[in-house]
Amino acid sequence: MVKKEKQTIEEIVQCPECGSNHLSKDYSRAELVCRNCGFVLDEDIIDHGPEWRAFDSEQREKRARTGAPMTYTIHDKGLSTMIGWKNRDSYGKSIPTRNRAQIYRLRKWARRIRISDATERSLAIAFSELDRMASGMGLPRTVRETAAVIYRKAALKKLVRGRSVEGVITAALYAACRQCHVPRTLDEISSIAHISRKELGRTYRYVSRELGLRLLPTSPEDYISRFCSELKLSGDVRVKTLEILQDATYRELTSGRGPTGMAAASLYIASVLCGERRTQREVADVAGVTEVTIRNRYKEITKKLDIAIGL
Asked: Measured between alpha carbons, how far is 151 from 149 in angstroms, rounded to an integer?
């Protein structure tokens, strides 16, 4: 028996479900889809087209398929080129020894002229600090890009003048965390940025006011996934914690309370109810609050919601 080989994308000319030949490649999902019935004929397809970085006709005419995608986390948006450190030419052949001194000088000057003025130097310093802080806290790429955009707007409006570059980029990172719903407390960011909590809060309020950032207050639910992960708690505890917070919000118990304290207290109650108890000290260390705060909050929650826990 001869095994039938799988057809390639080029060989697929019609839909096996409805027989239609109206097929389209959806590169956003990497799928070959029938436009008539919606049947997915193939998946994980590779985009070999030259316009993979273009989003409209104007960009398609201007841009070419070369280099890495544009990013705001580099001072020149990653659009400049650099001479590689390997002593090889474009064909992969080794560069003769007599020409290596010249290549070394070219490489050095290419690195120097990449940062041409004080503005680019300030951006380079700020984004290197941003990369250090984001890597230390394990923040995703979207948060870094958002923070870089906020800092560029602040630099364009000359908000950095008279303030430290580290303070403004840290405030931009804090705002980006809140905007992307990946909240971090002021204490967490200030500790890794090596600036005071007071300076960070003052700079953040100034930047958000001048740039017109409309950021909603963080909710306790935003912290639950991270706290559960750091405490190595199961999904059942996470679901139970969210249920407790939902009931507490309905009873208006979260109004006027710190979100981290409410999240820590609800998580502590859920861990006891689900049989995966963590001590108040362990939860307090992860949440960045005191044991007294957890004790006061969980007493309020258990009393108002009639939750009986045996301690």
From this structure: 5
Written as six digits, the tokens of 226 are: 């991270």
Alpha carbons 219 and 216: distance in angstroms, whole number: 9
Q: Which residue, among 251, 254, 250, 275, has the nearest Cα to 264 in the 3D structure?
A: 254
Q: Which domains does the chain have, with CATH numbers?
A: 1-66 (2.20.25.10), 118-211 (1.10.472.10), 221-304 (1.10.472.10)
Which 3 state secondary structure label does DSSP give 25?
Answer: strand
Distance CA 148, CA 76 (A): 12
Cα dihedral 248, 253, 255, 258 sign:
negative
The pLDDT tens digits of the residues spanning 139-162 come to: 888 899 999 999 999 988 888 888
- Alpha helices (H) in the chain, listed in sequence order: 57-62, 97-113, 118-137, 141-156, 165-179, 186-193, 197-211, 221-231, 235-250, 259-273, 280-287, 291-304
Q: Any idea what DSSP says for residue 56?
A: S
Half-sphere exposure of residue 223: CA atoms within 13 angstroms, side-chain side: 26
pLDDT score for 2: 38
Q: Please state the length of the chain.
A: 311
